[in-house]
Amino acid sequence: MSTASPSRTWKRPPLIKDTKLRYGLLLFVIVYFIAAFFSYEVNWARVYEGLDRGWEFIKAFSNPDFVTRWKDISAGIWESIVITVTSTVVGIILAIPIALGAASNLAPKPVYLFCRGIIAVARALHEIIVAILMVAIFGFGPLAGFITLAFSTIGFIAKLLAEDIENISKPQAEAVKSTGSGWWQWINYAIQPQVMPRLIGLSIYRVDINFRSSSILGLVGAGGVGATLNTAFDRYEFDTAAAIIIMIIAIVLVLEYVSSFIRAKVQ
Amino acid sequence: MPVISKGELKVWQRRDRAKQLKIWAMWFVGVAIFMFCWKIISDATTWFFVFDAPRIAADIGGRAWPPRWEYLSELWKPMWDTINIATLGTLLAIIMGVPVAFLAANNTTPSRKFLRPFALLIIVSTRSINSLVWALLLVSIIGPGIFAGTLAIAIRSIGFVAKLLYEAIEEIDTTQVEAIQATGASKLQVIAYGIVPQIMPAFAGLSVFRWDINIRESTILGLVGAGGIGLYLQSSLNILAWPQVTVILIMILIAVLISEWVSSKVRLAII
């Protein structure tokens, strides 16, 4: 600090310390946004026309129509719930062995790479794309949705569980091993109790995600309430659409409440 | 710890009888629910098609290979659109989500009775609806195109950004805020110098994380007419042009892997 300088003012430390990197990134961002902005073609007349319909949709929330299409709505929601339950259960059961294989402190290298490969593929593709392929292979209906969500559940649970297994406390594992336990006993008494709270938390969180996803699978014919929702939008029946959306939000809220309750109890 | 004596021997058990029975009962109910749900799916399935599935899968696989690489030249523009949908959508979500986060956080909200529940309602309702549903809605309101897709991504992400940010705001160190207050700073200055520097790393991390998720989501918005590479996927599927579908899927896979790599690098640099 030089005391000779006439005025010393304090400046906030910048987020990125390297000056070159900071201004380089800034320039890149500005150029990118200009380029992106000019590639947009917005038909403002169409947007303006649509505002009325948008207002109608917002109004529909104060007057949702559960009654007219109640049969379709209830069947769709019911199917979504069924898909959620089965896909979560099967996904978790399949994810556990893959997570064991994908933990670098348990599995030998070839098994590790194979399991990590499964996880990478399951996570990279969006559920809808997987659902399109599954519908093409297994035909329309909830079975395709069930397989899709079970598949993406595997990617989610196995990745996070494997990370948790890699972070376990080693002394406990060694203590069990030094009693002369076999491999299964070692997994059961040294690894499993340490990762169980996290596994339960993740599973419940995944129920929540799967329900939200199951509400769109119907768009590509994989079962659930999405088909009803799509039809409602196509026919501009906003009051029915509002009813379905309100039901989805309500169920997600209940699930979130239950999950925070169970997680608080487990941890 | 329950210990049962069998004659001379004392046997240790993990749980006593009542607790063990309760756990068995819960498992029984769980399995019953699962089997019931499975039966519903099974009833709705045409099993003939399922048994036929390996043949169909092999058939599709045979037609999808080799990929039609010439199609790649038509895909650069929709890929650029897809990236724009994700990036500008994330930016819009941040612009709208940050004020919502400050309204929702217990320690910064101006009114706990009125504005906070309202902000929480925005967070819950935007978060629980999938971006594809938002796209469906916006396409029917403002017409098809990437503008609708961008808005759909933005609305879906508001809840995500706001929720994680308000949790970060609630966890800040209050002593720093008090120190700024003690200098006689106004309310806005307290936010700018006492709160913002503390939540900046969390904010940057979650923005990049959401951008990564949004790249993945924007690849499919075209299925409902909201622009991007999904539009080409849909039209290729409609004419059963499987070699083109392969090219598109490979391109999506590469884009997702790159965005995941970028986002993890940035997050590591911040933390």
Commentary on this structure:
The complex is a heterodimer of chains A (267) and B (271). Chain A is mainly α and 267 residues long. Chain A has a single domain, classed as Orthogonal Bundle (MetI-like fold). Chain A is built from ten helices and no strands. Chain A has helices spanning 19-38, 44-60, 70-101, 109-124, 127-138, 142-166, 170-178, 183-214, 226-234, 238-266. The model of chain A has no long low-confidence stretch (mean pLDDT 85). Chain B folds into two domains: 3-64, no CATH class; 73-270, MetI-like (MetI-like fold, Orthogonal Bundle). Chain B contains eleven helices and two strands. The model of chain B has no long low-confidence stretch (mean pLDDT 86). Chain B: Residues 79-263 form the ABC transmembrane type-1 domain. Chain B: Keywords: Cell membrane, Membrane, Transmembrane, Transmembrane helix, Transport.
Topology:
The complex is a heterodimer of chains A (267) and B (271).
Chain A: H1 19-38, H2 44-60, H3 70-101, H4 109-124, H5 127-138, H6 142-166, H7 170-178, H8 183-214, H9 226-234, H10 238-266
Helix pairs in contact in A: 2-10, 3-6, 3-8, 4-6, 5-6, 6-8, 7-8, 8-10, 9-10
Chain B: E1 3-6, E2 9-12, H1 17-43, H2 47-51, H3 53-64, H4 72-104, H5 115-128, H6 131-142, H7 146-170, H8 174-182, H9 187-218, H10 229-238, H11 242-270
Antiparallel strand pairs in B: 1-2
Helix pairs in contact in B: 3-11, 4-5, 4-7, 4-9, 4-10, 5-7, 6-7, 7-9, 8-9, 9-11, 10-11
Organism (chain B): Cocleimonas flava
Subcellular location (chain B): Cell membrane
GO molecular function, one term (chain B): ABC-type phosphonate transporter activity
